[in-house]
Amino acid sequence: MEHTLQILIRTEKICKIYPNGTFANKAIDFSVFEGEIHGLVGENGAGKTTLMKMLYGEEQPSSGRMLIEERPISFTSEFDAIRAGIGMVHQHFMLVPSLTAAENLVLGKEPKRPRTRTFDFEAAARTTQELSEHYNLPVIVRARVADLSVSMRQKLEILKALYRGARILILDEPTAVLTPQETEELFIELKALKNQGKTIIFISHKLKEIFNICDRVTVMRDGKLIATHNVEDIDVQQISNEMVGREVHFEVMHPATEPGEAVLNVRHLAFIDDFGIVKLKNVSFSLRKNEILGVVGVDGNGQTELVEILTGMGKALAGSVIAHGVEITNKGPYTVRRNRIAHIAEDRITIGTALSASIEQNLLADRYWQRQFSTKLGFLRSKEMTQHAAMLVHEYDIRCNSTQQPVGSLSGGNMQKVVIAREFSAQASILIVSQPTRGVDIGAIEYIHLKIMEMQSAGKAILLVSSDLQEVMALSDALIVMHQGEIVAYFPDATTVTDKELGLYMLGLKRQSEYEIRQVFNE
Amino acid sequence: MNSIKRFFIDRESLAPALVTLLAALFSLLVGIILIFIVSKNPLQSIHNFLLAPFLRSYNFYYLLIVMVPITFTGLALCIVYQLGYMSLIVDASLYSGAVVATVIGTQLSLPAGVHPAVAMLAAGIVGGLISLLPAILKIRWRANELVSSLMLNYVFYFLGSFVILYYLRDRNQTILSSVPFKKTFLLPRLVQNTQLHVGFLIAVAFVILVSIFMYRTRWGYEIRLTGANPRFAMYTGIPVTTVILYAHFISGFIGGVGGAVEMAGLYRAFIWQMNPSYAWDGVIVAMLARRNPKFVPLSAFFFAYLRVGADFMSRRGDVAFEFITLLQGLIILILASDRIVNYFKERQLKKHIMKNQGAA
User: Fold this and answer.
1) Chain A closest CA to B215's CA: distance in Å?
2) Nearest chain B alpha carbon to A371
3) Between the CA of residue A347 and those of A70, A393, A413, B230, B325, what are the distances in Å?
4) Model ipTM value
């Protein structure tokens, strides 16, 4: 499509300093043409989300200004932005699960019956249906949001923005929660929206997607705008170099290793959550030494619960977890860790670290009691502790000023390195690795992948759970696919399967026979 | 010199230290303004208020005596605050500790020296056990520890009064009083002809012990990590429930000992007509000390200084003693306002960033 080359929205020398001192945006001159799909890429912490939040009125700039069609605008809240025709779909959906799709769509701007001035559900349903058809974004109008699939909720979010008169749509990493099939579908829909004259700002860190649908792309790094390119004029390598500020190597060198004996045996795990939803159903598998077993599935299909139970953070309803022949089911992390299991928690902010505690405390939290660090009488050997922490900081390349600095003051990538340094140096033989690179910058991702591989070569048994499908496929030797709390497929050799095929299992459209799945026992 | 500096100030805690100082100075300033409004002879009153401890040696020793119980409760609260708990049960621990000490001080016959020691140990254990209750209620049923501890404080206050009234009351006295303590129970005086007793040294010893415990032993380490993020602590294999229990026990133990020390040091019989509620003063002391035991003596001194000054001034002039509660309220208000701390932190940070990076 021909660009009209009319600037719709732009920022002028916009800066944002957060109260905690983060200089998130440094004099950004960002502009978007009318009717284009504009990609915004950058590592986590590069300032993409901050910039978008300012455009959407959720944050106010510290200095600089924003203009729509060359008229200066200033937003004090989202409401101003919505009025100005800007809509945003957040990574975490802002929907009310207990209400229907139609009710969610009109929420805050409800159609009323002319006489009684009461809420007119039929009108809402009609509007939703019309919008849905007009923009070709199918949703089940009368279903409760809680019953909708993730991709349908996303479509509803987009419709919601359109209903409020959005001309500019900001999508914050919309594909992070989707399967490959759903992603493709979304792209078709976004292109259709573009053809209807909408302007779309598309945030992503998956470069392939940018090339797939964007007209132009802006790269951010360290709070600065590095460059804006026409997508035709640039390639993946160039963009990623700009993102990271140096050469990046994508290829993961996967060592060829023979798996050893099974060290972790999981049998018939079952779990039902507080809302009565079955989260795990008869989950059984074995994890072998020298092996990376990847767990694949759309987020929310039981992976989180599985990891929680394996690591003692959650309690199974039934089933058993046996590590090195010792039963550790429901024994709690204290016992689990003393049975040589380390755990990279999926959420490093609320579980994986104590933000206000120092780097040293975070690194030693699982081993302060060892003789090496505390005497028989319980006194701490602070010199040894500081040395150990300094050694880990050095070995794992954690960028900080001092080991006494609070972990909360580190960037996401470095924070994750603290977690990884602790867990990988814990002398465990089983590693439960959950979302190791979520919200981590590319440079750190590369490094973390390397470390995981090193651990495998060192003979550890690794269970890898990640919502980044490419990551799991690249790193794992074998794969299991989870759907609605069940293992629906097992692939002994991860290299023989395509992401498309995995997608079919992830969506529950395909399912292996019991016999095939049972191969995961390796008996 | 350098190590002394490091002992008191590190960069990270500069902003809160500043705010603490500010709170103290500001409350003093407001106090002075109030005196000007209220008093007929403000200069004399201010003179009495600010210089009381230095005008008469009696006042100075009195100040040190006032410091003792609030040092104990301040220390006890430092521990639970570091754990991230808001329990005020140390009030009951101290009161019940005093009652237990009274029982032992009046009923048992032991040699001097051993007698108060036994009383302190028993009071400490009882105080520690009482302190466990709100923690258990929280762990087991998620009952808010602030509410349950406040309620339990009444329970143990009345239980203690009951014991004194029905079993230990001295019928010869017109006021409520227990039978007199045995001579062997009383703590010796530290300075002749003053009321300053050995309990002061015991309090100092506890400050040192608790500081070492919190910052030099693995148990203090566990408490601090659990307080920093309980889910993280559990995740890394710290036995969180155990930590919560022993932290509360130790905190209550300190409170209980505090009660026993008050009895053996200051009185000849249990004569508390009402609950002295040292826990509330302890809250201010712990907050002023920023939950760090090594600062407790400093903040207890400041607090006692306000007390003694106000007391002296009210007896010598026309400003009521109660005006001190106003100052206390002010201090708490300032210290509890995170925003004020953040304001200074943010300003520092922004300056720092602007200087280092420029505006790009």
Assistant:
1) 8
2) B218
3) 42, 21, 13, 14, 45
4) 0.84
